[in-house]
Amino acid sequence: KHHYHILDGLRGVAAIVVVWFHIFEAYATSHVDQIINHGYLAVDFFFILSGFVIGYAYDDRLGKTMTTGNFFKRRLIRLHPMIIMGVILGAIAFLIQGSVQWDGKHVAISAVMLSTLCAMFFIPALPGARYEVRGNGEMFPLNGPSWSLFFEYIGNILYAVFIHRLSTKALTVLVVLLGTGLAGFTLFDVSGYDMIGVGWTLDGVNFLGGSLRMLFPFSLGMLLSRKFKPFQMKGAFWICSIVLLILFCVPYIKVDTAPISLNGLFEAACIILIFPVLVWLGASGKTTDKRSTQICKFLGDISYPLYAVHYPIMYLFYAWLIDNELYTFAEIWPMAIVVYAGSIALAYLCLKLYDEPVRKWLGKKFLRKK
Question: Is the pLDDT of residue 370 over 50?
């Protein structure tokens, strides 16, 4: 099938934004003064991209030329090696930091090993559990961003056993219902955060919000893949990239007298309206020269490894800032660039020396040739 190089490139752009979002997060007292304020929406963009690509790749094969079991094998081989690598790096970073929680409480090595083992099998930590070693309620305390991959797994399971069987009309109804739920969640600030940056912990409102964040864009992406008809679009990668960067950098929106959350309205508009248009434009466009194709391919190749392994570096970065009492970006911008470049270099090394060889070996061993 045709490969959407520009969508690969856009996924890479979003992954790079996530890295900078987390770098600047070190200086944010809250989501109000975060420099890349809406960078967390990159996750919602990932979900709609994932739904589009999975629907395009498997809708006409799953249950026909491909069994459900084979689908699960393919998705596990694609996703899980880097999840394990992220856990290992996260455990190493935690040990380097002295095995202490954010409040300075020492954590036993046995708890760290239990947390590592659970994360490798993708068993999320309940807030306050012994293996929730950082003490701030994260599902995956050794590699925080893995929460979104946990929901990605749920989406893949639902797709294989349920969603792919839906007619286009039934899928449309599901998307409308989920979109209504997501809009209600953001507009009426159900989380109490006045933002949709939820899903990273297993408390009730976070799990509800995380589920909506995955289910709506994921299902919408599948619907787009069924309805998609390309049209002529020049410069799609650059146009879509610029729009994404502008959206991610929009400042926090707050008007106390407004009857709804205006920040939630902006988030809902991005996820429900703008992101689908960007995916459609990106899928319609084509790279027109070798250099553009190489850029999009590189960005697409490192996007998932970068997302999966960058946060252990952030843990060390945050600890360095605290230990040295560095409170302004002007003091540490050279180190920020090193963290950014180091994250990309680590992702590329993991991709070439670990992920690709492991996936190749697993594919030969467990996937049918057809």
Answer: no
Contact predicate 311/86, CB 8 Å: yes
Class of residue 351 by CB neighbours under 10 A (exposed 0-12, middle 13-18, buried 19+): buried
Mean residue pLDDT of the chain comes to: 94
Backbone angles phi, psi at 62, to 5 degrees: -65, 125
Q: Which of 55-64, 208-217, 225-234 tops mean pLDDT?
A: 208-217
Q: Is the Cβ–Cβ distance between 145 and 311 less than 8 Å?
A: yes
Spell 83-122 as b/e; 16+ CB within 10 A means b.
bbbbbbbbbebbeebebebeeeeebeeebbebbbebbbeb
Cβ neighbours of residue 150 closer than 8 Å, sequence gap 6 or more: 122, 124, 139, 140
**Average pLDDT of span 149-160:** 97
pTM listed for this prediction: 0.96
